[in-house]
Specification:
Blueprint lengths: L1 H10 L7 H8 L3 H14 L17 H14 L6 H5 L3 H23 L5 H13 L25
Helix pairs in contact: 4-6
């Protein structure tokens, strides 16, 4: 039932909530969620739906990823997912560990690497556009005057 509600609310063609609602609640656009869902299913069989010991379908991939993203985006405790999504705290924590491991395994080469020159140039341009020239290597901002700075830092 919770899977059907989730699908009707966000993922079916005539879903209850709009793409803008989805983006606000999931803290990402719909296509990013779908890519993430596809990637974790591809890398880790844990995120594919299986049958439980009674022969009933277990949690769907959509449910598993949704619950973990909600926990991360809103800082929701694992024990609160039981009331809204029907997933016990221990299962939430197991799923969270699988999710983190899978994300690191799949995306580490692209996102968890030292920045190359192109990355640095882009960061420098972005910082300069926002009025913070030379921010790379100077993230403490000690060169900026701040009238409310704590006296211990002055």
């Amino acid at each position: 039932m919770t899977h059907a509600n989730l699908m009707n609310n966000y993922f079916n063609p005539n879903s209850v909530y709009t793409k803008e609602d989805f983006s606000r609640r999931f803290q990402m656009r719909h296509h990013v969620f779908e890519r993430l869902l596809h990637d974790v299913q591809h890398v880790n069989p844990y995120f594919r739906q299986k049958r439980d010991r009674t022969g009933l379908p277990g949690f769907s991939p959509h449910q598993k990823v949704t619950i973990e993203l909600r926990m991360m985006a809103y800082g929701s405790p694992a024990d609160s997912m039981d009331e809204t999504h029907g997933m016990f705290e221990s299962t939430c924590l197991d799923t969270l560990a699988e999710f983190y491991d899978t994300i690191v395994q799949f995306y580490k080469d692209e996102y968890l690497r030292k920045p190359n020159q192109e990355d640095l140039d882009q960061l420098i341009r972005k910082a300069e556009d926002r009025g913070f020239p030379g921010m790379i290597g100077s993230l403490d901002c000690m060169h900026w005057d701040w009238k409310n700075c704590l006296t211990g830092w002055q």
